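Hi Y.,

Following your request, here is the sequence exactly as I used it, all 465 residues.
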Amino acid sequence: MNKKIISTFALTLAIYANAQQNVGGISGDMLQSIKQSYQETASDKAIRNAIGGSDIRKLALNQDNLKGLDTYFSNKVESKGIADQKKSGRCWLFTGLNVMRARMISKYNLGPFEFSQNYCFFWDQLEKSNLFLQGVIDTYKKPMDDKMVEWLFKNPLSDGGQFTGISDIVGKYGLVPKEVMPETNSSDNTSQMASLLTTKLREFGLQLREEATKGVKQANLQKKKTEMLCTVYHMLALNLGVPPTEFTWTRTDVKGNPVNTKQYTPLSFFKEYINDDLTNNYVMIMNDPTREYHKNYEIDFDRHRYDGKNWTYVNLPVDEIKEMAIKSIKDSTMMYFSCDVGKFLNSERGLLDIRNYDYESLMGTTFGMNKKQRVQSFASGSSHAMTLMAVDLDQNGKPKKWMVENSWGSTNGYQGHLIMTDEWFDEYMFRLVVDKKYVPTKVLDILKQKPIRLPAWDPMFADEE
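Below is the corresponding structure, written out as C-alpha coordinates. Let me know if you'd prefer a different format.
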Protein backbone atom coordinates (compact mmCIF):
# COMPACT_ATOMS: atom_id res chain seq x y z
CA MET A 1 0.00 0.00 0.00
CA ASN A 2 1.19 3.54 -0.76
CA LYS A 3 2.96 5.09 2.23
CA LYS A 4 1.00 8.32 1.73
CA ILE A 5 -2.32 6.43 1.89
CA ILE A 6 -1.19 4.60 5.05
CA SER A 7 -0.17 7.89 6.65
CA THR A 8 -3.49 9.50 5.78
CA PHE A 9 -5.43 6.51 7.15
CA ALA A 10 -3.48 6.59 10.43
CA LEU A 11 -4.12 10.31 10.79
CA THR A 12 -7.85 9.77 10.21
CA LEU A 13 -7.93 7.06 12.89
CA ALA A 14 -6.11 9.33 15.32
CA ILE A 15 -8.54 12.20 14.68
CA TYR A 16 -11.52 9.82 15.13
CA ALA A 17 -10.11 8.37 18.35
CA ASN A 18 -9.46 11.86 19.71
CA ALA A 19 -12.99 12.93 18.80
CA GLN A 20 -14.42 9.90 20.59
CA GLN A 21 -12.41 10.75 23.71
CA ASN A 22 -13.75 14.29 23.67
CA VAL A 23 -17.40 13.20 23.54
CA GLY A 24 -18.89 14.21 26.87
CA GLY A 25 -16.28 16.86 27.58
CA ILE A 26 -16.94 20.60 27.65
CA SER A 27 -16.32 21.74 24.09
CA GLY A 28 -15.52 25.30 23.13
CA ASP A 29 -19.05 25.89 21.80
CA MET A 30 -20.58 24.37 24.91
CA LEU A 31 -18.43 26.53 27.18
CA GLN A 32 -19.42 29.63 25.23
CA SER A 33 -23.09 28.70 25.63
CA ILE A 34 -22.66 28.16 29.36
CA LYS A 35 -20.92 31.50 29.81
CA GLN A 36 -23.59 33.35 27.86
CA SER A 37 -26.34 31.81 30.01
CA TYR A 38 -25.15 33.92 32.94
CA GLN A 39 -26.29 37.50 32.52
CA GLU A 40 -25.28 39.22 35.73
CA THR A 41 -28.13 41.30 37.06
CA ALA A 42 -27.92 43.92 39.76
CA SER A 43 -29.35 41.43 42.26
CA ASP A 44 -26.81 38.78 41.18
CA LYS A 45 -24.01 41.22 41.75
CA ALA A 46 -25.36 42.15 45.17
CA ILE A 47 -25.64 38.47 46.14
CA ARG A 48 -22.13 37.73 44.83
CA ASN A 49 -20.73 40.62 46.85
CA ALA A 50 -22.55 39.40 49.97
CA ILE A 51 -21.46 35.76 49.58
CA GLY A 52 -17.87 36.87 49.01
CA GLY A 53 -17.65 38.09 52.60
CA SER A 54 -20.30 36.17 54.51
CA ASP A 55 -21.41 32.74 55.65
CA ILE A 56 -23.99 31.39 53.18
CA ARG A 57 -26.16 30.18 56.07
CA LYS A 58 -26.41 33.68 57.50
CA LEU A 59 -27.47 35.06 54.14
CA ALA A 60 -30.00 32.26 53.61
CA LEU A 61 -31.43 32.55 57.15
CA ASN A 62 -35.18 32.74 56.71
CA GLN A 63 -36.26 35.87 58.58
CA ASP A 64 -39.90 34.81 58.36
CA ASN A 65 -39.05 31.78 60.48
CA LEU A 66 -37.46 33.69 63.36
CA LYS A 67 -40.55 34.09 65.47
CA GLY A 68 -40.33 33.12 69.13
CA LEU A 69 -39.22 29.54 69.65
CA ASP A 70 -42.06 27.41 71.04
CA THR A 71 -40.52 25.34 73.84
CA TYR A 72 -43.74 23.86 75.25
CA PHE A 73 -44.14 20.09 74.99
CA SER A 74 -47.29 18.20 75.90
CA ASN A 75 -45.30 15.06 76.75
CA LYS A 76 -41.76 15.18 78.10
CA VAL A 77 -39.35 12.94 79.97
CA GLU A 78 -37.38 15.00 82.48
CA SER A 79 -33.58 14.89 82.51
CA LYS A 80 -30.93 16.38 84.75
CA GLY A 81 -27.68 17.68 83.32
CA ILE A 82 -26.38 17.86 79.77
CA ALA A 83 -23.34 15.77 78.78
CA ASP A 84 -20.59 16.92 76.43
CA GLN A 85 -18.79 14.55 74.06
CA LYS A 86 -16.42 17.39 73.09
CA LYS A 87 -14.13 16.66 70.15
CA SER A 88 -14.95 12.99 69.86
CA GLY A 89 -17.26 10.80 67.80
CA ARG A 90 -18.86 9.16 70.83
CA CYS A 91 -22.42 10.45 70.37
CA TRP A 92 -23.71 6.85 70.19
CA LEU A 93 -22.15 6.14 73.59
CA PHE A 94 -23.40 9.32 75.25
CA THR A 95 -26.88 8.73 73.83
CA GLY A 96 -27.14 5.14 75.04
CA LEU A 97 -25.85 6.03 78.50
CA ASN A 98 -28.17 9.05 78.69
CA VAL A 99 -31.18 6.77 78.14
CA MET A 100 -30.09 4.57 81.05
CA ARG A 101 -29.12 7.40 83.38
CA ALA A 102 -32.55 9.06 82.93
CA ARG A 103 -34.16 5.84 84.13
CA MET A 104 -31.76 5.58 87.08
CA ILE A 105 -32.24 9.23 88.11
CA SER A 106 -36.02 8.82 88.07
CA LYS A 107 -36.07 5.49 89.90
CA TYR A 108 -33.69 6.52 92.70
CA ASN A 109 -34.57 10.23 92.94
CA LEU A 110 -31.00 11.31 92.14
CA GLY A 111 -29.63 14.73 91.36
CA PRO A 112 -27.49 15.26 88.25
CA PHE A 113 -25.68 12.02 87.45
CA GLU A 114 -23.62 10.52 84.61
CA PHE A 115 -22.13 7.14 83.89
CA SER A 116 -18.46 7.10 82.91
CA GLN A 117 -18.30 7.37 79.13
CA ASN A 118 -14.53 6.95 79.34
CA TYR A 119 -14.87 3.55 81.02
CA CYS A 120 -17.11 2.19 78.27
CA PHE A 121 -14.99 3.83 75.57
CA PHE A 122 -11.86 2.04 76.80
CA TRP A 123 -13.46 -1.38 76.40
CA ASP A 124 -15.08 -0.37 73.12
CA GLN A 125 -11.70 0.47 71.61
CA LEU A 126 -10.13 -2.77 72.85
CA GLU A 127 -13.02 -4.88 71.55
CA LYS A 128 -13.03 -3.12 68.18
CA SER A 129 -9.29 -3.76 67.91
CA ASN A 130 -9.91 -7.46 68.46
CA LEU A 131 -12.78 -7.37 65.95
CA PHE A 132 -10.40 -6.02 63.31
CA LEU A 133 -7.52 -8.40 64.07
CA GLN A 134 -9.76 -11.46 64.12
CA GLY A 135 -11.38 -10.27 60.91
CA VAL A 136 -7.94 -10.16 59.32
CA ILE A 137 -7.26 -13.72 60.44
CA ASP A 138 -10.63 -14.89 59.10
CA THR A 139 -10.00 -13.36 55.66
CA TYR A 140 -6.28 -14.08 55.21
CA LYS A 141 -6.92 -16.32 52.17
CA LYS A 142 -8.55 -13.45 50.30
CA PRO A 143 -6.40 -10.97 48.32
CA MET A 144 -5.72 -7.47 49.65
CA ASP A 145 -8.00 -5.97 46.99
CA ASP A 146 -10.93 -8.13 48.09
CA LYS A 147 -13.82 -5.86 49.10
CA MET A 148 -14.03 -7.21 52.66
CA VAL A 149 -10.26 -7.09 53.25
CA GLU A 150 -10.14 -3.60 51.83
CA TRP A 151 -12.97 -2.50 54.12
CA LEU A 152 -11.23 -3.96 57.17
CA PHE A 153 -7.98 -2.10 56.54
CA LYS A 154 -9.82 1.12 55.75
CA ASN A 155 -11.78 0.83 59.01
CA PRO A 156 -9.61 -0.88 61.62
CA LEU A 157 -10.97 1.33 64.42
CA SER A 158 -13.24 4.31 65.02
CA ASP A 159 -14.72 6.19 67.94
CA GLY A 160 -18.12 6.19 66.23
CA GLY A 161 -20.76 3.52 66.57
CA GLN A 162 -24.43 2.81 67.17
CA PHE A 163 -26.71 1.08 69.65
CA THR A 164 -25.16 -2.36 69.23
CA GLY A 165 -22.09 -0.84 70.89
CA ILE A 166 -24.14 -0.13 74.00
CA SER A 167 -25.46 -3.67 74.25
CA ASP A 168 -22.11 -5.24 73.30
CA ILE A 169 -19.96 -3.22 75.72
CA VAL A 170 -22.23 -2.55 78.69
CA GLY A 171 -23.59 -6.10 78.70
CA LYS A 172 -20.07 -7.51 79.02
CA TYR A 173 -18.18 -4.90 81.05
CA GLY A 174 -20.89 -3.16 83.07
CA LEU A 175 -20.96 0.50 84.10
CA VAL A 176 -19.31 2.83 86.60
CA PRO A 177 -20.19 6.38 87.73
CA LYS A 178 -18.35 9.14 85.91
CA GLU A 179 -16.29 10.12 88.94
CA VAL A 180 -14.86 6.59 89.16
CA MET A 181 -13.23 6.90 85.72
CA PRO A 182 -13.41 10.52 84.55
CA GLU A 183 -12.67 11.85 81.09
CA THR A 184 -9.11 12.51 79.91
CA ASN A 185 -7.77 14.75 77.20
CA SER A 186 -7.58 11.77 74.84
CA SER A 187 -11.19 10.74 75.49
CA ASP A 188 -12.38 14.32 74.97
CA ASN A 189 -10.17 14.74 71.89
CA THR A 190 -9.85 11.35 70.25
CA SER A 191 -8.13 12.13 66.94
CA GLN A 192 -4.46 11.79 67.96
CA MET A 193 -4.95 8.58 69.92
CA ALA A 194 -7.09 7.17 67.10
CA SER A 195 -4.42 7.95 64.52
CA LEU A 196 -1.75 6.09 66.49
CA LEU A 197 -4.00 3.11 67.22
CA THR A 198 -5.22 2.70 63.64
CA THR A 199 -1.65 2.88 62.33
CA LYS A 200 -0.55 0.21 64.80
CA LEU A 201 -3.54 -2.01 64.01
CA ARG A 202 -2.87 -1.86 60.28
CA GLU A 203 0.73 -2.86 60.96
CA PHE A 204 -0.48 -5.75 63.12
CA GLY A 205 -3.02 -6.74 60.49
CA LEU A 206 -0.36 -7.09 57.81
CA GLN A 207 1.79 -9.15 60.18
CA LEU A 208 -1.09 -11.54 60.89
CA ARG A 209 -1.83 -11.98 57.18
CA GLU A 210 1.81 -12.76 56.52
CA GLU A 211 1.96 -15.29 59.37
CA ALA A 212 -1.27 -16.96 58.30
CA THR A 213 -0.14 -17.16 54.67
CA LYS A 214 3.01 -18.96 55.79
CA GLY A 215 0.84 -21.66 57.34
CA VAL A 216 1.15 -20.67 61.01
CA LYS A 217 -1.40 -22.66 63.04
CA GLN A 218 -4.54 -21.00 64.39
CA ALA A 219 -3.43 -21.47 68.00
CA ASN A 220 -0.23 -19.55 67.30
CA LEU A 221 -2.13 -16.85 65.41
CA GLN A 222 -4.39 -16.41 68.43
CA LYS A 223 -1.36 -16.18 70.69
CA LYS A 224 0.14 -13.54 68.38
CA LYS A 225 -3.15 -11.63 68.37
CA THR A 226 -3.22 -11.64 72.18
CA GLU A 227 0.28 -10.15 72.26
CA MET A 228 -0.89 -7.43 69.87
CA LEU A 229 -3.92 -6.68 72.04
CA CYS A 230 -1.56 -6.30 75.03
CA THR A 231 0.09 -3.46 73.11
CA VAL A 232 -3.31 -1.93 72.34
CA TYR A 233 -4.32 -2.20 76.01
CA HIS A 234 -1.09 -0.47 77.04
CA MET A 235 -1.72 2.40 74.62
CA LEU A 236 -5.32 2.75 75.81
CA ALA A 237 -4.26 2.76 79.47
CA LEU A 238 -1.75 5.53 78.80
CA ASN A 239 -4.41 7.64 77.09
CA LEU A 240 -7.59 6.83 79.00
CA GLY A 241 -6.47 5.39 82.33
CA VAL A 242 -6.86 1.88 83.74
CA PRO A 243 -10.49 0.70 84.07
CA PRO A 244 -11.45 -0.08 87.69
CA THR A 245 -12.30 -3.62 88.71
CA GLU A 246 -13.82 -2.58 92.05
CA PHE A 247 -14.90 0.76 93.52
CA THR A 248 -16.82 2.27 96.40
CA TRP A 249 -19.73 4.60 95.61
CA THR A 250 -22.09 6.58 97.80
CA ARG A 251 -25.57 7.11 96.40
CA THR A 252 -27.13 10.45 97.36
CA ASP A 253 -30.68 11.73 96.94
CA VAL A 254 -31.80 14.76 94.95
CA LYS A 255 -30.79 17.05 97.84
CA GLY A 256 -27.30 15.55 98.07
CA ASN A 257 -27.98 13.58 101.24
CA PRO A 258 -26.17 10.21 101.42
CA VAL A 259 -28.44 7.16 101.10
CA ASN A 260 -25.97 4.27 101.17
CA THR A 261 -22.34 3.43 100.52
CA LYS A 262 -21.37 0.13 98.91
CA GLN A 263 -18.54 -1.56 97.11
CA TYR A 264 -19.21 -2.61 93.53
CA THR A 265 -17.71 -4.22 90.49
CA PRO A 266 -18.74 -2.60 87.20
CA LEU A 267 -21.05 -5.54 86.45
CA SER A 268 -22.64 -5.58 89.92
CA PHE A 269 -23.23 -1.81 89.61
CA PHE A 270 -24.95 -2.33 86.25
CA LYS A 271 -27.09 -5.17 87.60
CA GLU A 272 -28.17 -3.24 90.70
CA TYR A 273 -29.12 0.00 88.99
CA ILE A 274 -30.04 -0.96 85.41
CA ASN A 275 -30.35 -4.77 85.22
CA ASP A 276 -31.63 -4.84 81.64
CA ASP A 277 -31.05 -7.25 78.77
CA LEU A 278 -29.87 -4.66 76.27
CA THR A 279 -29.45 -7.24 73.51
CA ASN A 280 -32.92 -8.78 73.61
CA ASN A 281 -35.23 -6.18 75.16
CA TYR A 282 -34.82 -3.49 72.51
CA VAL A 283 -35.63 -3.22 68.81
CA MET A 284 -33.77 -1.02 66.35
CA ILE A 285 -36.17 0.58 63.89
CA MET A 286 -35.12 2.41 60.73
CA ASN A 287 -36.75 4.57 58.12
CA ASP A 288 -34.82 3.86 54.92
CA PRO A 289 -37.06 4.59 51.91
CA THR A 290 -34.51 3.03 49.54
CA ARG A 291 -35.29 -0.45 50.87
CA GLU A 292 -38.50 -2.44 51.24
CA TYR A 293 -40.51 -1.70 54.37
CA HIS A 294 -41.66 -4.33 56.88
CA LYS A 295 -38.53 -6.37 56.37
CA ASN A 296 -35.76 -7.46 58.74
CA TYR A 297 -32.19 -6.50 57.82
CA GLU A 298 -28.77 -7.35 59.23
CA ILE A 299 -25.49 -5.55 58.52
CA ASP A 300 -22.55 -7.90 58.17
CA PHE A 301 -19.64 -7.37 60.59
CA ASP A 302 -21.33 -4.29 62.07
CA ARG A 303 -20.88 -4.85 65.78
CA HIS A 304 -18.51 -3.68 68.51
CA ARG A 305 -17.35 -7.12 69.69
CA TYR A 306 -16.29 -10.07 67.59
CA ASP A 307 -18.56 -12.24 69.76
CA GLY A 308 -21.27 -9.57 69.83
CA LYS A 309 -24.44 -9.22 67.77
CA ASN A 310 -24.59 -7.74 64.28
CA TRP A 311 -26.70 -4.64 63.87
CA THR A 312 -30.21 -5.92 63.00
CA TYR A 313 -33.19 -3.67 62.33
CA VAL A 314 -36.75 -3.52 61.04
CA ASN A 315 -37.38 -1.03 58.23
CA LEU A 316 -40.65 0.85 58.70
CA PRO A 317 -42.54 3.89 57.35
CA VAL A 318 -41.94 6.96 59.48
CA ASP A 319 -45.56 7.20 60.73
CA GLU A 320 -45.33 3.74 62.30
CA ILE A 321 -42.09 4.74 64.01
CA LYS A 322 -43.75 7.84 65.44
CA GLU A 323 -46.49 5.77 67.06
CA MET A 324 -43.91 3.77 69.04
CA ALA A 325 -41.95 6.90 69.95
CA ILE A 326 -45.06 8.60 71.31
CA LYS A 327 -45.97 5.55 73.43
CA SER A 328 -42.47 5.48 74.91
CA ILE A 329 -42.40 9.18 75.76
CA LYS A 330 -45.88 9.04 77.30
CA ASP A 331 -44.54 6.28 79.55
CA SER A 332 -41.55 8.46 80.59
CA THR A 333 -39.02 6.42 78.65
CA MET A 334 -36.32 8.09 76.55
CA MET A 335 -35.02 6.49 73.34
CA TYR A 336 -31.83 6.21 71.32
CA PHE A 337 -32.45 8.31 68.20
CA SER A 338 -30.29 9.22 65.22
CA CYS A 339 -30.67 11.55 62.27
CA ASP A 340 -28.92 13.76 59.71
CA VAL A 341 -28.36 16.53 62.23
CA GLY A 342 -26.50 18.95 59.96
CA LYS A 343 -29.43 19.56 57.63
CA PHE A 344 -31.20 22.88 58.26
CA LEU A 345 -29.84 23.18 61.80
CA ASN A 346 -29.98 26.60 63.39
CA SER A 347 -27.54 25.86 66.20
CA GLU A 348 -28.00 29.23 67.90
CA ARG A 349 -31.71 28.60 68.42
CA GLY A 350 -31.40 24.84 68.75
CA LEU A 351 -33.97 24.35 66.00
CA LEU A 352 -34.11 21.75 63.23
CA ASP A 353 -36.62 23.04 60.69
CA ILE A 354 -36.69 22.67 56.89
CA ARG A 355 -37.73 26.34 56.76
CA ASN A 356 -34.71 27.63 58.69
CA TYR A 357 -32.76 28.49 55.54
CA ASP A 358 -33.99 29.65 52.14
CA TYR A 359 -31.17 28.47 49.91
CA GLU A 360 -33.43 28.42 46.86
CA SER A 361 -34.08 32.17 46.88
CA LEU A 362 -30.41 32.90 47.51
CA MET A 363 -29.09 30.63 44.76
CA GLY A 364 -31.91 31.09 42.26
CA THR A 365 -32.61 27.39 41.86
CA THR A 366 -34.53 24.57 43.53
CA PHE A 367 -33.34 21.59 45.57
CA GLY A 368 -36.03 19.06 44.82
CA MET A 369 -34.83 15.62 45.90
CA ASN A 370 -37.05 13.64 48.26
CA LYS A 371 -35.69 11.55 51.15
CA LYS A 372 -35.28 8.42 49.05
CA GLN A 373 -33.37 10.29 46.35
CA ARG A 374 -31.13 11.99 48.89
CA VAL A 375 -30.17 8.63 50.40
CA GLN A 376 -29.63 7.03 46.98
CA SER A 377 -27.34 9.85 45.89
CA PHE A 378 -25.39 10.03 49.20
CA ALA A 379 -26.80 13.49 49.92
CA SER A 380 -28.22 12.39 53.28
CA GLY A 381 -27.74 9.72 55.91
CA SER A 382 -27.63 9.23 59.65
CA SER A 383 -24.77 11.24 61.12
CA HIS A 384 -25.48 11.81 64.81
CA ALA A 385 -27.21 10.09 67.73
CA MET A 386 -29.18 11.88 70.44
CA THR A 387 -31.77 11.02 73.09
CA LEU A 388 -35.41 11.47 72.06
CA MET A 389 -37.23 12.77 75.12
CA ALA A 390 -40.27 14.91 74.23
CA VAL A 391 -43.14 15.32 71.76
CA ASP A 392 -45.76 18.04 71.43
CA LEU A 393 -49.12 16.64 70.29
CA ASP A 394 -52.07 18.55 68.85
CA GLN A 395 -55.70 18.01 69.88
CA ASN A 396 -55.94 15.02 67.56
CA GLY A 397 -52.84 13.36 69.01
CA LYS A 398 -50.67 14.17 66.00
CA PRO A 399 -47.08 15.35 66.63
CA LYS A 400 -46.21 18.97 65.94
CA LYS A 401 -42.62 18.93 67.14
CA TRP A 402 -40.07 16.80 69.00
CA MET A 403 -37.13 17.41 71.33
CA VAL A 404 -33.87 15.55 71.91
CA GLU A 405 -31.27 15.76 74.65
CA ASN A 406 -27.95 16.34 72.90
CA SER A 407 -24.34 15.73 73.99
CA TRP A 408 -22.73 18.97 72.82
CA GLY A 409 -22.75 20.73 76.20
CA SER A 410 -25.36 22.78 78.06
CA THR A 411 -24.66 26.02 76.19
CA ASN A 412 -25.28 24.53 72.76
CA GLY A 413 -28.69 24.80 71.11
CA TYR A 414 -31.69 25.27 73.38
CA GLN A 415 -30.18 24.66 76.84
CA GLY A 416 -28.30 21.65 75.48
CA HIS A 417 -31.32 20.32 73.56
CA LEU A 418 -32.49 20.43 69.95
CA ILE A 419 -36.10 20.98 68.94
CA MET A 420 -37.25 19.61 65.58
CA THR A 421 -40.43 20.21 63.64
CA ASP A 422 -42.45 17.16 62.66
CA GLU A 423 -41.74 17.93 58.98
CA TRP A 424 -38.01 17.84 59.67
CA PHE A 425 -38.46 14.56 61.57
CA ASP A 426 -40.08 13.03 58.47
CA GLU A 427 -37.21 14.05 56.21
CA TYR A 428 -34.09 13.51 58.30
CA MET A 429 -34.68 10.97 61.08
CA PHE A 430 -33.29 7.49 60.37
CA ARG A 431 -32.98 5.30 63.49
CA LEU A 432 -34.80 4.70 66.73
CA VAL A 433 -34.24 2.08 69.41
CA VAL A 434 -37.44 1.17 71.26
CA ASP A 435 -38.16 -1.01 74.28
CA LYS A 436 -40.06 -4.07 73.04
CA LYS A 437 -43.05 -3.28 75.25
CA TYR A 438 -43.85 -0.30 73.01
CA VAL A 439 -43.43 -2.28 69.78
CA PRO A 440 -46.56 -3.80 68.13
CA THR A 441 -46.72 -7.57 67.78
CA LYS A 442 -46.73 -7.31 63.97
CA VAL A 443 -43.34 -5.57 64.12
CA LEU A 444 -41.92 -8.09 66.60
CA ASP A 445 -43.03 -10.82 64.20
CA ILE A 446 -40.90 -9.26 61.47
CA LEU A 447 -37.86 -9.87 63.68
CA LYS A 448 -38.57 -13.59 63.37
CA GLN A 449 -37.89 -13.40 59.63
CA LYS A 450 -34.51 -14.52 58.37
CA PRO A 451 -32.77 -11.13 58.02
CA ILE A 452 -31.71 -9.81 54.65
CA ARG A 453 -27.94 -9.52 54.99
CA LEU A 454 -26.33 -6.27 53.86
CA PRO A 455 -22.58 -5.65 53.39
CA ALA A 456 -20.50 -3.86 56.02
CA TRP A 457 -19.55 -1.14 53.54
CA ASP A 458 -23.11 -0.11 52.69
CA PRO A 459 -22.99 3.73 52.89
CA MET A 460 -26.27 3.85 54.83
CA PHE A 461 -24.59 2.30 57.86
CA ALA A 462 -21.66 4.55 58.66
CA ASP A 463 -20.99 4.96 62.38
CA GLU A 464 -22.75 7.84 64.11
CA GLU A 465 -20.53 10.53 65.55
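DSSP finds 17 helices and 14 strands in the chain.

Thanks again,
Q.
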